[in-house]
Structure to design on (154 residues):
């Protein structure tokens, strides 16, 4: 089993309901075990800022899915929920990102599968929620615990 951290966000329609539905899809998969979630957090948009605020949460789970299988699974949840990809970093009813996949460092030429998530240190809410789940998480690119990373990075 691999320890995985996901970040979920929604800023369209009923944001809380969208997150709850996405989490329910995750819990229904028999390959997802020991799921724990953070509280929901309202955040300002990043990148494309002319859009509604987000509700975000982070998830910890153990899985025996490989990283590609996990990516296809979370994309299937987004598709099932009607996610439309119109504007990069634009409004969306659901967004599910793989933040960490064990201690793995993955960049296989597919821009959708880069782990650790390339923007994680630039998003204070992601760090805050990772610390809520587990202050002992190690950032694979530096070997440091998330709690030890210089706050100036975010």
């Amino acid at each position: 089993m691999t320890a995985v951290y996901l970040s979920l966000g929604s800023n369209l329609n009923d944001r809380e309901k969208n997150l709850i539905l996405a989490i329910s899809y995750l819990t229904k998969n028999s390959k997802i075990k020991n799921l724990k979630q953070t509280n929901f957090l309202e955040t300002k948009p990043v990148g494309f800022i002319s859009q509604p605020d987000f509700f975000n949460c982070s998830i910890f789970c153990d899985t025996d899915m490989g990283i590609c299988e996990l990516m296809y699974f979370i994309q299937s949840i987004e598709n099932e929920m009607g996610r439309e990809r119109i504007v990069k970093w634009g409004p969306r009813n659901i967004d599910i990102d793989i933040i960490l996949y064990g201690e793995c460092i993955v960049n296989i030429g597919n821009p959708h599968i880069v782990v650790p998530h390339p923007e994680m240190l630039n998003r204070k809410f992601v760090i805050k929620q990772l610390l809520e789940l587990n202050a002992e998480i190690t950032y694979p690119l530096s070997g440091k615990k998330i709690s030890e990373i210089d706050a100036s990075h975010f």
